[in-house]
Automatic annotation (TrEMBL):
This protein's UniProt keywords: Cytoplasm, DNA-binding, DNA-directed RNA polymerase, Nucleotidyltransferase, Transcription, Transferase
InterPro entries recorded: DNA-dir_RpoC_beta_prime (IPR045867), RNA_pol_Rpb1_5 (IPR007081), RPO1C (IPR012757)
Transferase found in the keyword field: yes
Domain RNA polymerase Rpb1: residue ranges: 41-334
Record text on subunit structure and interactions: Part of the RNA polymerase complex.
Originating species: Ignisphaera aggregans (strain DSM 17230 / JCM 13409 / AQ1.S1)
Function according to Swiss-Prot or TrEMBL: DNA-dependent RNA polymerase (RNAP) catalyzes the transcription of DNA into RNA using the four ribonucleoside triphosphates as substrates. Forms part of the jaw domain.
Protein name as catalogued: DNA-directed RNA polymerase subunit Rpo1C
Enzyme nomenclature, EC number: 2.7.7.6
GO cellular component terms, A-Z: cytoplasm; DNA-directed RNA polymerase complex
Length: 391
């Protein structure tokens, strides 16, 4: 009879407190799944221990400086271009150094916001259904379906000539445009030209002011017919066995409510919006993912732990903060450290007026005053007295 192996005891004895409980449970489940012998388990656990020891930092290691070097040096090799998205002329996406700067500066809106909308099982395999959702969410204004707009000051009218090809492409009917205009334009009668179904005549009841005609024209052209605010363009892509909508712009809260959209898989590159809608942990995960994507896209090999440290520092207060004088650098307790970053005189005067005290606990402030930095061997507060007699 085969002796039953106590996996729990073997793992606990080997790893103990070296590994977080969640990881230990995953290791136990994996060992059970593959039904390994005790000898094979010992080999796997020894390899895990070796990896832990090789990848652990020494006490007093300046992890912040190492992370800054490890991300900063490869960043100098980055390009400064804005690329077309996946060969699509209409969509641009900011990559390289500009995108990295955007991320560490925690910009409120990215220069090229993108949202990847995944669909539910019922919709994801059907192109026609994907097109239907794309038409529903893409922001469509009158300017997108109008060929031209003519103003007749003598007859006090405005004539909008519609493009039948764009009407079909956007899935818009003339009735939809009339409804939108009735909400946007007051004191006017709106009708379809009986001689031309693609012409809408706006007959104003009050005389048009020539000085305000251009402003009125812009208002009419920018009148929303349908769609979600912020989603300016939608491109349908085939990925594997499903269709995915790539949207220019982002509006998570409204997109997640659309029928057919899989809200569990929707993804945007807008860190601030993710923080607001999904919370700080989701924003932290996205920050790590976006920085790693930028580095990997440029062919740069940076260990994810350096990026994780940066993301942890940026999100530790419960909100995403930039690495700069308005964020992380400006929040440091040390006066000298804050002054060494930017606006030196202002930082020193503000600190003096408040009577702040610098306890010299960090690296930068100790370099400034000429002390040993509290890293490595200098972190150890141990004095050896060779003359003291042993008891």
């Amino acid at each position: 009879m085969k002796k039953e192996i106590d996996i729990d005891k073997i793992v606990e004895d080997k790893l103990g407190s070296r590994v977080p409980p969640k990881i230990i449970n995953e290791i136990k489940d994996t060992l059970r799944k593959y039904n390994l012998s005790q000898e094979e388990m010992e080999m796997v656990l020894n390899e895990i221990v070796r990896e832990i020891e090789e990848n652990s930092i020494d006490p007093g290691e300046p992890v912040g400086i190492v992370a800054a070097q490890s991300i900063g040096e490869p960043s100098t090799q980055m390009t400064l271009r804005t690329f077309h998205y996946a060969g699509v002329r209409e969509l641009n996406v900011t990559l390289g150094l500009p995108r990295l700067i955007e991320l560490v500066d925690a910009k409120k809106t990215p220069s090229t916001p993108l949202t990847y909308v995944y669909l539910t099982e019922e919709y994801r395999g059907d192109r026609e259904k994907a097109i239907e959702i794309a038409r529903k969410i893409e922001l469509t204004k009158i300017v997108n379906v109008a060929m031209r707009i003519d103003i007749d000051l003598f007859n006090n009218t405005m004539i909008i000539t519609l493009d039948p090809v764009m009407l079909e492409d956007k899935g818009v009917f003339v009735e939809d445009i009339i409804k939108a205009l009735q909400k946007a334009v007051k004191k006017a009668k709106i009708n379809v030209n009986p001689d031309n179904p693609n012409e809408i005549i706006i007959q104003f009841t009050e005389p048009l002011d020539p000085t305000k005609v251009e402003k009125l024209r812009e208002k009419i052209l920018n009148t929303k017919i349908k769609g979600i605010k912020g989603i300016n363009k939608v491109i349908i892509q085939r990925r594997g066995d499903e269709y995915v909508l790539v949207c220019e712009g982002s509006n998570l809260s409204e997109l997640m409510e659309i029928e057919g959209v899989d809200y569990r898989r929707i993804r945007t590159n807008n860190i601030r919006e993710v923080e607001e809608i999904l919370g700080i942990e989701a924003a932290r995960s996205l920050l790590i993912e976006e920085i790693m994507n930028v580095l990997e896209e440029q062919g740069l090999d940076v260990d994810i732990r350096h990026v994780t440290l940066v993301a942890d520092i940026m999100t530790r207060t419960g909100s995403v903060r930039q690495i700069g004088r308005h964020g992380i650098a400006g929040m440091k307790d040390s006066v000298l450290s804050r002054a060494s970053f930017e606006v030196t005189v202002k930082q020193l005067i503000d600190a003096a007026s408040r009577g702040e005290i610098d306890n010299l606990k960090g690296v930068i402030e100790n370099i400034i005053v000429g002390n040993y930095m509290p890293i490595g061997t200098a972190k150890v507060k141990l004095v050896y007295n060779p003359y003291r007699k042993q008891s």
